[in-house]
Write a structure and sequence with these properties.
The structure is a single chain. With about 450 residues, the protein is mostly helical. It contains 18 helices and no strands. Helix 8 crosses helix 17. The radius of gyration is 23 Å and the shape is globular.
């Protein structure tokens, strides 16, 4: 991972960027981006790149068919084939283990290697065929446009999920400028800093505590581990989204934001308006609304929300912990429309604290190896656990000066700090951004070169 990151930063992106701006034609630029995207994916997944290509061609062909005749039939075929394609690779082992557990069988569990980013590019392929079904005019006769949309390397392996309707015009017409390039570079480096400096440090703390024997974790360590994982998953995924948006901006694309300070939300509904916005928007547009949304009565609305959050949890991984995580969020969302809603609390700060605690506790379930581990960990968080010498040693081992500093910095960075600089200082501040960007990039490079621990949580999705 470290070597791949350095290759990407030092060779892959600069060479691609240089060639891209030497080519005058938008068609030629798109072809270059397609070639680079497939090479990028093949570098890590040399076999499964064929599957991605087949997915692109299949969905392009279905899109062409939808443009001409039997639209409902072909969109139904596309949905079924894409979901089966995703299910075979992602959920075969999970389904077989569940069947064995329910019926006491001893079937051999088939272990299929999960192609990187399959959930992201499959959902983008579904977005294409469904958007063409809704508006055949945006269907593409040029296969290259569909290949670029599904395979575009900045967001290929870890999102955000870009809806075809939001990007179709940018594929054929893009505006390039120095401001876009410089802004994209700064956005990319800022995201890299979140990932390398914050998320990776939080990952060390979270892994040390979550992987420790239950008897060695006390209430203080349990909360430290839970907070560390909440910060890890946020800065890991938010950082990658920033890198994707920054790279896309460098090539003239504008993607919609994927995060908007989710840890300052004052309710679960507000949280999902801010967290993984592209995924929540996808489920809203392509599942919740087609199911009837909130237009068919209270009972149906509740059912639809549970279906959406069941699918949201299952999308994240083949484990009951993910499903329980999704259903917990669905339950909180349903309760927000009752008399015990957080909205009844008049003080916004109190609502934000309660929401943050709920989200942190839910992420414990998300992180746990199984449901038993999740409940045992949550029990320790709220009942105290043990204060043996081993548990105290584990706790103090996480509270190094570097870890404490990064925990505080992680907390301070959960909200955007918009400072209104005096007009006379704005040119100095603007130029200073590039200096700080360069310093941050150097720190990230040093960290990548010296630290072999560099997990990307969302690669597995």
């Amino acid at each position: 991972m470290v070597f791949s990151s350095l290759i990407f930063l030092c060779v892959f992106l600069p060479v691609t960027f240089g060639l891209y701006y030497l080519i005058p034609s938008i068609t030629a630029k798109n072809i270059l981006l397609i070639i680079v995207s497939f090479l990028f994916y093949a570098y890590g997944e040399p076999v499964y790149v064929i599957l991605m290509f087949i997915s692109c061609v299949f969905n392009y062909a279905v899109g062409r068919a939808i443009m001409w005749r039997r639209r409902r039939l072909f969109v139904a075929i596309a949905v079924i084939v894409n979901l089966v394609f995703l299910g075979v690779f992602k959920y075969t082992g999970f389904v077989m283990e569940t069947v064995n557990g329910l019926f006491g069988l001893n079937l051999d569990v088939v272990e299929i290697a999960l192609p990187v980013g399959i959930s992201f590019y499959t959902f983008q392929a579904l977005s294409y065929v469904i958007d063409v079904y809704r508006d055949p005019k945006i269907g593409q006769r040029n296969l290259l446009n569909v290949l670029l949309y599904i395979s575009f390397f900045p967001q290929l392996i870890a999102g955000p999920i870009v809806r075809f309707d939001d990007i179709v015009h940018q594929i054929r017409h893009r505006v390039h400028s120095v401001d876009k390039i410089s802004g994209g570079i700064c956005r990319f480096v800022r995201g890299l800093g979140k990932k390398v400096l914050l998320a990776n440090t939080m990952a060390v703390i979270a892994d040390n505590i979550f992987n420790a024997p239950g008897g060695q974790v006390n209430v203080i360590a349990a909360w430290i581990g839970a907070l560390a994982y909440a910060f890890q998953i946020y800065y890991d995924f938010c950082g990658y989204s920033d890198m994707a948006l920054g790279m896309a901006q460098m090539f003239g694309f504008r993607f919609l934001e994927n995060f908007n300070a989710p840890y300052v939300a004052d309710g679960i509904q507000d949280f999902w308006h801010r967290w993984h916005i592209s995924l929540s928007t996808w489920f809203k547009e392509y599942l919740y609304i087609p199911l009837g949304g909130n237009r068919k009565g209270k009972a149906r609305t509740i059912l639809n929300r549970y279906i959406v959050f069941f699918c949201t949890g299952l999308w994240h991984g083949a484990n009951w912990t993910f499903i329980l995580w999704g259903l917990l969020h669905g339950t909180c969302l349903v309760l927000e429309n009752t008399r015990i809603s957080l909205k009844r609390i008049p003080v916004k700060g109190v609502r934000q604290i309660i929401t943050f605690i709920l989200v942190v506790c839910a992420f414990v379930i998300f992180r746990a190896d199984d449901i038993g581990h999740a409940f045992a960990y949550l029990g320790t968080m709220f009942t105290g656990g043990t204060f043996s010498s081993a548990s105290m040693d584990l706790m103090w081992a996480q509270l190094t000066p570097v870890h404490i500093f990064m925990l505080i910095l992680s907390f301070l960075c959960i909200r955007p700090w918009n400072i209104s600089w005096p007009k006379a200082l704005r040119p100095v501040v603007t130029k200073g951004v590039y200096v700080w960007t360069l310093i941050l990039l150097l720190l990230c490079m040093i960290n990548l070169a010296s630290n072999a621990y560099n997990p990307f949580i969302y690669f597995r999705f």
